[in-house]
Amino acid sequence: MTAIIESEWYLAGRDDDIPDGEGRAYEIGGRTVAVFRTQDQFYAIDDQCPHMGASLAAGYLENCTVACPWHAWRFDIRNGTWCDNPRIKIDSFPVRVQEHEIWVQIPLRIDPVNTTSQPDEKIEQSTSMVEQSDTTLATAGGSVNIRDFQQLIRKMYFEKDRARGVEGTFMWLMEEVGELSSALRERDRENQIEEFADVLAWLATIANVCDIDLSEAIQRKYGTGCPGCRKFACSCPDSEKP
Which class for 216: exposed (0-12), middle (13-18), buried (19 or more C-beta within 10 A)? Predict the structure, then answer.
């Protein structure tokens, strides 16, 4: 869990720089912060939408809710809550106005990944396929091993994924699930193939961020048969979830 070591107040700008009902982006404290003014109250959140990186300061502000200008993902500017799932938040920051100057408090944080632990041995133990090539995902017979695939995704994207965090990565996963849903409705087989791959890749991505070995998780849950009836040919009633 992320721990705050200390924080510092940074001058963002002047209050008359931001008309009521609008936002502005400021580079302060080593990050880009969106400051909003609504009903003469000021609020600050992370400027980057965790979906595709659009500037939230350029979004449509209605009362205390800002909609991303690209795909209309909505966030509460008072606390950074994603309106479609209150359990997920982006960073929000305290704001104070003194003599028409807007000051934003930026916390200094430790790495959200446990830096005292050793690298995940379960995920690192299978690297043979990844080491064979930096550009291909090829195994004997054309099959793909789940652990090797997760390791390849880790090799390609982990630094970005870790910086994005669980919440932002989860939003990307949900976006890909939505795109798969569209492909299924449209019966576009080529698009379905791509979207199934994308959903699997983002599932591997969030598993990497959470330090979960998908291969081990699958074996633990389904390795001895259906979790409900414990049979490999499920006999659970259709009305029950296995």
Answer: middle
pLDDT tens per residue across all 242 residues of the chain = 444 457 889 999 999 999 999 999 999 988 899 999 999 999 999 998 887 788 999 999 999 999 999 888 899 999 999 988 777 788 999 999 999 999 999 987 544 444 333 444 443 443 443 444 444 444 444 556 788 888 888 888 888 888 878 888 888 888 888 888 888 888 888 888 988 988 888 898 888 888 888 888 887 888 777 888 877 788 888 776 65
> In what helix (H) or strand (E) does residue 171 lie, and over which residues does it extend?
helix 146-186
pTM of the model: 0.50
Residues 6+ apart with CB under 8 A from 139: 129, 145, 148
DSSP state of 89: B
